[in-house]
Structure formats: structure tokens, C-alpha cells
């Protein structure tokens, strides 16, 4: 991430996620801190899309868009989105909704 880019959320949150329940296996092994050779897992940043759209999502505090960037190519190759929904019929309890995971096809 470049110094002038603003992340959508604190990148340290990705280190706090419990990945122990993951049942997928990869060879070679991957992890959030080592997603693959030349790849980095990070929050969406201002430079990744229209600034107005980014600021709207960031301001709400309910969007967590995470990307995998191929740092060799300088391109985003995968994304995942978590949206926090406030359930009004349950006294505004918060529920995390995993919206999508997309990979860039070759």
C-alpha cells in the first residue's frame, strides 16, 4: 500500500481473524500473511476505485472489502466483501453477511 492511499478499514483487523476453521488446503501452503508468491492481502484503498464510492462505503463503517493484489502486476486479482447488517427486528443486532468472493480469470 502506498503512503498516500487510505485503506477502507484498519489492516490489522485481517491479522485478528481466526483462520483455524478453514478446511481448504493449498500446495504450497498459503495464509493471510503469505497468500502466495507476489500476492498481498489488504483492505480496499482509495486508489482502487472512484473516491466518492470509496468514501461512502468507508464512512458507513459497515463495509469490509478485502482484496488480493498481485504486486508484480500491480493488479487486484481477487476480492471478498463482508457487510455488517443491522437487524431492526432484533433490536438492531449486527449480523455479518459475506457477499462475494471473486477471482480475476486469466
Automatic annotation (TrEMBL):
Keywords: Acyltransferase, Transferase
Keyword Acyltransferase: yes
InterPro entries per the UniProt record, alphabetical: GNPNAT1-like
Major enzyme class: transferase
EC number: 2.3.1.4
Calcium found in the keyword field: no
Pathway membership: Nucleotide-sugar biosynthesis; UDP-N-acetyl-alpha-D-glucosamine biosynthesis; N-acetyl-alpha-D-glucosamine 1-phosphate from alpha-D-glucosamine 6-phosphate (route I): step 1/2
Swiss-Prot/TrEMBL catalytic activity: D-glucosamine 6-phosphate + acetyl-CoA = N-acetyl-D-glucosamine 6-phosphate + CoA + H(+)
Record GO terms (molecular function): glucosamine 6-phosphate N-acetyltransferase activity
Highest taxon of source: Eukaryota
GO biological process, any: UDP-N-acetylglucosamine biosynthetic process
Quaternary assembly: Homodimer.
Protein family membership: Belongs to the acetyltransferase family. GNA1 subfamily.
Protein name: Glucosamine 6-phosphate N-acetyltransferase
